[in-house]
Design brief:
801 residues, alpha+beta, seven-stranded mixed β-sheet, five-stranded mixed β-sheet, 21 helices, 28% helix, globular
Amino acid sequence: MTPPDAHMAASAVGDGPYIGRPLPRLEDERLLRGQGRYTDDFRLAGELHAAFVRAPHAHAAIEGIEVAEAAAAAGVVAVLTGADYKADGLGGIDHFPNPADAVQADRRAFTGNGGRAVLDLPHLPLATDRVRHMGEPVAVVIAETAEAAADAAELVAVDYRELPVVADLDQAVTARAPRLYDDLPDNIAFEARFGDEAATEQALRGAAVVIEQRFVNQRVANAQMEPRSAIGTHDPATDITTMIAGSQGAVRQRDTLARLLGLAAEKVQVICPDVGGGFGPRTNLYPEQAVVVWAARRLARPVRWTSTRSEAFLADFQGRDSITTARIGLDAEGRITGYAVALDGNVGAHTVSYVPVANGYRVLTTVYDVPTAFARLRGVLTNTVPTAPYRGAGRPEAHFVIERLLDIAARRLGLDRVEIRRRNMVPRQRLPYRNAMGLTYDSGDFHHNLSQALAMADWAGFDGRRAAARGRGRLAGIAVANYVESPVGIPVERVEVAVLADGAVEVVAGTQSTGQGHETSFAQVIADRLGVAPAQVRLVTGDTRRVAVGGGTHSDRTMRLAGQLIMKTTGEILEQGRQVAAHLLAVDPADLAFVDGAFRAPGSNRTFRLVELAAEIAGNATLPASLRRPLHAVADFRGRIPAYPTGAAVCEVEVDPETGVTDIVRYTTVDDVGQPINPLILHGQVHGGIAQGVGQALFETVSADAETGQILSGSFMDYAMPRADRLPAIDVALAEDPTAGNTLRVKGGGESGITPATAVTINAIVDALAPLGVVHVDMPATPNRVWAAIQDASRAGGGGA
């Protein structure tokens, strides 16, 4: 949420054009000076503090909850349980786990095409009869101070009867696995089948070689810089219920909250201020948010809660967690003939989101020309924290599988790893190209991206570097991975633009920055369109008093959708301004030229800028009534604006065979994200995505005891995050094969870095170890896991690929 004077106080940055210019972010000075305003910075009169009582078991029946001692503790105002919540007539959070289809937005991604129903199970914010994952909230203590609430929470006594636990994805689908829900026959939340199974099986039977491999995409924690926080309040005078909480979209949070409370949307306000990281899991409404709002209404006082980092590891929705068994058939020349995958995605204890599986199957074949493919997909319930979309949401997982398979196939067939990719990539002249899963790529020069990345990375000179590394007692490896994305997201957006008499241009948008630099990117587009300086643009987001419609920010959707609407609204404002200027200059509107931000009459030095026209409209009583309408336009969009970011990445590593420690020594990426609005911001987004992908490849994993579900990685002492000193300087280049899908030619850059990162990193490690006989290493490739792979290969008599 931008302070009203934030941009007006900033200095203008030169003259246009601004699109494509690497301007420093307008919001950075405010944020770096500590003037950002996050949820925990808000203070409301009379506010109370909440502390949650969380389940110490991954699966247990609740036999009783004793709250008397906690309720009598000093400073405690109330102790509330799920029974109180249900007594108030409230139900579960409606997460809408089944997303809109990536092609036909009026359909759901999964429609029972696996022969069974797609589950959308109630998710009560406070468990009543059973807890299904460790850390699930069962009660909340509301007190005058945070300390009093936390102390009293320790006094709540819950009588649990432990139940059998199934925390492992493989075990959950077995016939004898414990059931999470008594009324379900198994732990399958949905099953779906896509593609041509018969044709694919026939192609695999006729292939010269079939590569089959099992790939584990481990669970990762969504460790944002800012822990989750929420404040609930209710104003009896207006009957408005308000929630203040950082998220990835205020409108979706409002609508979900309104349904939960049984209120009309206009009776609920959601304020989303500055947000310190989103990455997907902050799209959905969380139980703690629902509880503080309900408690505030019940107690007639504001209620606030801020997560500790320990709570975050227990209760924040997590990412990834899937197992794919894949088979790929190739002819003797290494061309793909058929591709089949069976993918199980871990949904967790509640059906929060099926987005990762939906995204992953659509882009299953990535940039490669696969004649026939088939996918069997399942969402599996386990006694773990629910999963949600995490940066890339299914697309990195799909790329990991096919890029690993191609490396394995190249070694099996004795082919060069680059050559096998070139033989299978879709050539540009075949665009538009419809892949085997129904996506139609409209643009993307895949071969050019690959060639540019190889040249930038000095692929040809690697043999010399490998030899030099060997002389230092290290094993060097290099790998390349290609990618294409399929950005989707919520298919609804609105943009409102107004030129104000005070010289500002106000833009109201339904997107929500969580660190992507929206204030700057939006300002650059508006500045070029309306002939103003970026400092004059004021972006309003994150408050449903002003933002009535919008899909938030995720899945590369912001500038792809909002940018199209900016083009439309600014076009309407320019035409409106033309009419006013023509009247004031006494000329025909068609004779006016809009040059350098001003309307100019032919043969005259008289001009009018839009901000001057706004002042005339506000203060010139002689204007005809038809021209005194403020310079203002609104545009809505519902549907899909397809775009396919694409590129290639090269990773070079060195492995210490004595310890298994892997160092990334070079990382190169070429990314076609469409027209770059701000290359500086794009490079930052790519760097961040690479860090997250490398983090998963080398370090990160949520670990739990398979028998009890107890979390073993509950702090940063146990959960290994990538550090700056573990990453090299990243060589980034932008390319563009233009898309006709939207006027700004935007494809999206927020997920480009992460999409190929896990694949290219693991491929490089395996390349380093291949001379020892290592064929595959699972993620994360920790020193212990790499060292163990070396030892296993040595015992097996390895010494050649």
